[in-house]
Design brief:
The chain is mainly α. It is built from two helices and no strands.
């Protein structure tokens, strides 16, 4: 290889992929196991309360 910094490119790709995978698994854990409602669920609940009042 002409440039030794090019060896860092695969490591950077791996790091980003691992970070995204961790973030996805962590968000699933927070939403489903901890019972934190998603943004869509909160919006649905708010709309149902508004419709019940009308």
């Amino acid at each position: 290889m002409d440039n030794p910094l090019l060896i860092l490119v695969p490591w950077a790709v791996f790091s980003v992929a691992a970070g995204l995978k961790f973030w996805r698994l962590n968000s699933l854990f927070r939403k489903h196991l901890l019972g934190i409602p998603s943004r869509t669920e909160r919006l649905r609940q708010m709309l149902e309360r508004v419709w019940e009042r009308d």
